[in-house]
Specification:
The chain is 40% helix and 14% strand. The chain is α/β, with parallel strands linked by helices. It has a single domain (11-269), classed as TIM Barrel (Alpha-Beta Barrel). Helix 2 packs across helix 4 (67-80) and helix 4 runs parallel beside helix 5. Bound molecules: 3-methyl-2-oxobutanoic acid (KIV). Residues 28, 47, 49-51, 89, 184, 186, 207, 217, 219 line the site of 3-methyl-2-oxobutanoic acid (KIV).
Length: 272
Amino acid sequence: MKPQRPQIIACTQLRDMKQAGEKIAVLTAYDASLTAKLEEAGVDVILVGDSLGMVVQGHDSTLPVSMDDMVYHTRNVARARRRALLVSDMPYRSYQTEAQALENARRLIDAGADMVKLEGAGDVIAHVQALTGQGIDVCGHLGLLPQSIEELGGYRVQGREQAAAQKMINDAQALQQAGAAMIVLECIPAALAARLSEAIDIPTIGIGAGVDCDGQVLVTYDLLGLTAGKRPRFSKDFLIEQPAGKGLVDALRAYVNDVKALRFPAAEHSFD
Ligand code: KIV
């Protein structure tokens, strides 16, 4: 008998996990070798993030990342993916019109992605609706939006003022209404992330958004202490904390276990 291949996690399973209170562990990957290790560690979702512009290409933002870059890295990750759901970022200026969003999302799906991620709300909501209307699964991204870093005036916590917090909740509901299957929340107060997660049925995945999101994501290079310069406050170097004799997969597993057990993120990785 042929050995059975593990089934890829479906979007509906992620929603079931939210309902059951099981946290979703997400990490980034950009190549086949690291993807295989993420699979070994049992991550639920792998994100081919446009953070690759910073950690792989050495730029100081995600803005220079192109569609060709995302297709290339998505293909590399897809070759080693076994069970985790594969989400790929749509890069800067790749979804300015509905037609462009559709064409570029299809390129990522053809490269092996199960879902595409778009940043923001406003005009983006209609583009999300266009994609989901064509059967393409979409992940939203609210809070700190790295592709709008120039407009935001730098990497800082979003949604601290009451009006901005309420707008973010409304945007999350609009994304859900447009058919989004999941939303990343980046650098927002933990209390707002908890309120927002309660206000929608689809899972929220936090990065610097506190422990009450339905799942967590980190840039894997931060988790492994590979990122040049100062590590962001919301991340944690899990590799350095491993006892002697333990290695990379143990560090990845420690992250997955800590997310599932609500040990990560701690208050020191979260914002008020
Ligand atoms: O590009 C990326 O890696 C991301 C995560 C930081 C959520 O969008």
